[in-house]
Amino acid sequence: MSFFIEVLLGGLLSGVMYTMVAIGFVLIYKASGVFNFAQGAMVLFAALTFVSLTERGFAFPLAFIATLAAMLLLALAIERIVLRPLVNAPPLSLFLATLGLAYILEGLAQTLWGTQVHGLDIGVSDAPISAAGVSVSRFDLFAAGTAATLVATLALFFRLTRSGVALRAVADDPLAAIAVGIDLRRLLALVWGVAGVVALVAGLLWGARVGVQFSLSLVVLKALPVLIIGGFSSIPGAIVGGLIVGASEKLAEVYAGPWVNGGIETWFPYFIALAFLLVRPAGLFGERSVQRV
To answer: pLDDT, tens digit, for every residue of 159-182?
Structure first.
């Protein structure tokens, strides 16, 4: 039982990390209906910028502030230069625009900082903590706590602040929100800026765990099952979906992996996501689209 609890806790802590990446997608999708495929590239760009600055002698706080400023400027530039002119374009055009942005950001990161792999130390040990026969990584606890704090802050922002309420109104009915005087352009700039901040935090945590390399942008693929299970437009859905994905992949690898020669952790979340698409396409917390004809 203690081993089962240890595996489950490890999966849940990983799931909180997945949630943090998925929330970057949810923010953009709630405000504009765009699936931002460039979110993974933004995570890579943030991590690579931060680690490159620290290797050039910047202190941790200064490197963090400089990277935060760079991510805010980058996110605002993407919204202003690329997405705003395409605001009335078909959804497929918007998706292809973010797909192109992903490759552009990866190329820009390569041009600025090179292609070598970097190790990232944020000062948190990976040594285990043991209690009641259960061992948990210190870094996993720190990462999960940071991600949970960020998620809770965003949830409170959407629920309690004026801008958050306006974003919820835009997500529910964009035309009605504009009709009552909500500035859609300002809100889109705000939400892209917040997505840049989320990308920075996710980049630091994932970079510290797996190293800062170009495969880091593929973390976007692990967020897809989270979004499908929880719903593309729901922050609570991203939380629940991340926990389900994290716990299920670890348990499946440990208990079912030996029966299928291992490697089940990489594809099992997509199996669950496919089942949700067949049974509940909108996800656990997503809203089903209703069309009147």
So the answer is: 788 877 777 777 666 667 777 777
